[in-house]
Amino acid sequence: MAKDLNTLIRLNEWTVNERRRELGDVLASLADLEDGLERLRQELIREQQAVLSSPEEAGFFYGNYATAVIGQRQHLNDGIAN
Q1: Do 80 and 33 touch, CB atoms closer than 8 A?
Q2: What backbone phi and psi angles, to 5 degrees, belong to 16?
Q3: Of 44, 31, 38, 41, which is closest to residue 79 (Cα–Cα)?
Protein backbone atom coordinates (compact mmCIF):
# COMPACT_ATOMS: atom_id res chain seq x y z
CA MET A 1 0.00 0.00 0.00
CA ALA A 2 2.81 2.43 0.87
CA LYS A 3 4.47 1.70 -2.49
CA ASP A 4 1.23 2.54 -4.32
CA LEU A 5 0.91 5.75 -2.33
CA ASN A 6 4.50 6.78 -3.11
CA THR A 7 3.92 6.09 -6.79
CA LEU A 8 0.74 8.18 -6.74
CA ILE A 9 2.54 11.03 -4.98
CA ARG A 10 5.39 10.98 -7.53
CA LEU A 11 2.91 10.96 -10.39
CA ASN A 12 1.03 13.94 -8.94
CA GLU A 13 4.29 15.81 -8.33
CA TRP A 14 5.29 15.21 -11.95
CA THR A 15 1.88 16.45 -13.12
CA VAL A 16 2.17 19.60 -11.00
CA ASN A 17 5.69 20.27 -12.28
CA GLU A 18 4.54 19.80 -15.87
CA ARG A 19 1.71 22.30 -15.31
CA ARG A 20 4.19 24.75 -13.80
CA ARG A 21 6.39 24.48 -16.90
CA GLU A 22 3.38 25.04 -19.14
CA LEU A 23 2.32 28.06 -17.08
CA GLY A 24 5.86 29.43 -17.29
CA ASP A 25 5.76 29.11 -21.08
CA VAL A 26 2.39 30.86 -21.26
CA LEU A 27 3.55 33.67 -18.98
CA ALA A 28 6.73 34.12 -21.04
CA SER A 29 4.66 34.34 -24.23
CA LEU A 30 2.34 36.85 -22.61
CA ALA A 31 5.31 38.97 -21.52
CA ASP A 32 6.69 38.88 -25.08
CA LEU A 33 3.36 40.03 -26.50
CA GLU A 34 3.08 42.83 -23.94
CA ASP A 35 6.66 43.90 -24.73
CA GLY A 36 5.72 43.96 -28.39
CA LEU A 37 2.78 46.23 -27.65
CA GLU A 38 5.03 48.60 -25.70
CA ARG A 39 7.63 48.68 -28.50
CA LEU A 40 4.87 49.37 -31.00
CA ARG A 41 3.53 52.19 -28.83
CA GLN A 42 6.99 53.77 -28.56
CA GLU A 43 7.54 53.44 -32.30
CA LEU A 44 4.19 55.06 -32.98
CA ILE A 45 5.10 58.01 -30.75
CA ARG A 46 8.40 58.48 -32.62
CA GLU A 47 6.64 58.32 -35.98
CA GLN A 48 4.01 60.84 -34.88
CA GLN A 49 6.76 63.22 -33.75
CA ALA A 50 8.49 62.82 -37.12
CA VAL A 51 5.26 63.66 -38.91
CA LEU A 52 4.80 66.75 -36.78
CA SER A 53 8.34 67.95 -37.48
CA SER A 54 7.98 67.64 -41.27
CA PRO A 55 4.34 67.10 -42.21
CA GLU A 56 4.86 67.76 -45.94
CA GLU A 57 7.28 64.88 -46.34
CA ALA A 58 6.17 62.35 -43.75
CA GLY A 59 2.45 63.01 -43.79
CA PHE A 60 2.07 61.29 -47.14
CA PHE A 61 3.31 57.96 -45.76
CA TYR A 62 1.80 58.14 -42.30
CA GLY A 63 -1.64 56.85 -43.33
CA ASN A 64 -0.23 53.54 -44.56
CA TYR A 65 1.98 53.29 -41.50
CA ALA A 66 -0.95 53.93 -39.15
CA THR A 67 -2.99 51.23 -40.89
CA ALA A 68 -0.13 48.75 -40.46
CA VAL A 69 0.23 49.67 -36.77
CA ILE A 70 -3.48 49.09 -36.20
CA GLY A 71 -3.14 45.62 -37.73
CA GLN A 72 -0.06 44.79 -35.67
CA ARG A 73 -1.70 46.03 -32.49
CA GLN A 74 -4.79 43.90 -33.18
CA HIS A 75 -2.61 40.86 -33.83
CA LEU A 76 -0.76 41.33 -30.53
CA ASN A 77 -3.98 41.93 -28.61
CA ASP A 78 -5.50 38.79 -30.14
CA GLY A 79 -2.46 36.84 -28.99
CA ILE A 80 -2.87 38.18 -25.47
CA ALA A 81 -6.58 37.38 -25.43
CA ASN A 82 -5.94 33.79 -26.46
Answers
A1: yes
A2: -65, -45
A3: 31
